[in-house]
């Protein structure tokens, strides 16, 4: 009886763990949202939606660091504007943790273009243009790992 | 009004209860700008060094154990009369005595678990800021 219970419990736990994927993702509160005093409101959205904060730091990127962070976009038409914008003032970098954190964060951020972002998303509420769009979020687990190491090389 | 900088710590109780954003929003709405931020889990030794001034006080042991019980968010706030402004927003050390609408009235649960720390004078602000941040970690804010 005891062993049957154990089997059932193990099976239940396994199926739960398939549905539940604890992840970490990187979020950046960009210079526009910092300058507009939205740091607290944005972090509150993460906390209210089940994303735990594992790390926070405020930094001011220089051109070299910004170009390195966005290296995959080098050569694209928006690259220079993006780098100039991201170095225009301090940013707040966060590591968020939770169930499917990468997708959850992207859902909370909304579409890259605030005109297309759904009501109640961060970009709808805090972004002003396609460039000045308030927040960055990792687009996959692999980029999350790269981006977290980029900003927190010392670990969390 | 005098531009000042002060050190703020969101303590382990408020971090654990997911109040980081709500507390930072209070600072920003009151005209205090964040110019430095770092999240850290203090060791007991670091907490003891930070609160060395209270070493002989009866609450020292509980305070340093509490402050090293989980991660904290340390920020430097800048603005007109930032030191007294921050203390006004925090409210009295004992949440039972804290005025309605203050951080401690809203987020603290006891005199020990009182959600936030803030520097009490210009001299301590300087000491406390340099305890946690190097000068190049302070970000100038034009807006």
Task: Explain the layout of strands and helices.
The complex is a heterodimer of chains A (about 160) and B (about 140).
Chain A: H1 2-19, E1 22-29, H2 31-35, H3 39-48, E2 52-59, H4 63-69, H5 79-86, E3 91-99, H6 101-109, H7 122-126, E4 135-137, H8 141-151
Chain B: E1 3-10, H1 12-16, H2 20-29, E2 33-40, H3 44-50, H4 60-67, E3 72-80, H5 82-90, H6 103-107, E4 116-118, H7 122-132
Antiparallel strand pairs in B: 1-3, 1-4, 2-3
Helix pairs in contact in B: 3-4
Q: How would you describe what is shown here?
A:
The complex is a heterodimer of chains A (156) and B (143). By secondary structure, chain A is α+β, with helices and mostly antiparallel strands. Helix content of chain A is 47%, strand content 18%. Chain A has a four-stranded antiparallel β-sheet, with helices on both faces. The longest helix of chain A has 18 residues, at 2-19. The model of chain A has no long low-confidence stretch (mean pLDDT 93). Chain B is of the alpha+beta class and 143 residues long. In chain B, α3 (44-50) crosses α4 (60-67). The interface between A and B is medium-sized, with 27 and 27 residues.
Beta-sheet strand percentage of chain B? 15-25%
Number of DSSP-assigned strands of chain B = 4
Which structural class matches the secondary elements of chain A?
A: alpha+beta
Largest sheet of chain B: 4 strands, antiparallel
**Helix/strand structural class of chain B:** alpha+beta
Strand order, biggest sheet of chain B? 2-3-1-4
Task: Name the helix and strand elements of chain B from N-terminus to C-terminus, one letter apiece.
Answer: EHHEHHEHHEH
Compute the number of helices of chain B. Answer: 7
Question: What best-fitting shape of chain B do the alpha-carbon axes yield?
Answer: globular
Distance between the termini of chain B: 17 Å
Question: What's the tally of helices of chain A?
Answer: 8
Percent of residues of chain B in helical segments? Answer: 25-40%
Mean pLDDT of chain B: 97
Q: Enumerate the strands of the largest sheet of chain A in spatial order, edge to edge or round the barrel.
A: 2-3-1-4
Give the oligomeric state.
heterodimer
Uncertain runs of chain A are none
Largest binding interface between chains:
A-B, 27 and 27 residues
* C-alpha-based Rg of chain A, rounded: 18 Å
Which stretches of chain B are low in confidence, meaning pLDDT under 50 for 5 or more residues running?
Answer: none
* Extended strand count of chain A: 4
